[in-house]
Amino acid sequence: MHGNICDTHHVHEVDEQKQRLTKVAWDKRLAWLGKSVIDDAMYEWHKRLWACVHVKGGHFEHLI
After folding, report:
1. Within 13 A of 39's CA, how many CA atoms are on the CB side?
2. Is the pTM of this model over 0.70?
3. Could you tell me if 41 and 18 lie in one domain?
């Protein structure tokens, strides 16, 4: 039984480490992109979302 507890604890540690490494990798990618690129992407997404809502989910490409 003690072996199972240690194994479970080890799995949680490994999962936590994977999550931390993934977050660091994404943070580095985002830093590389730069704030202006991210801001532009968010603006484009907002514009597309508004157009989609405006036509109630219909075709909206002509509105963009």
Report:
1. 3
2. no
3. no
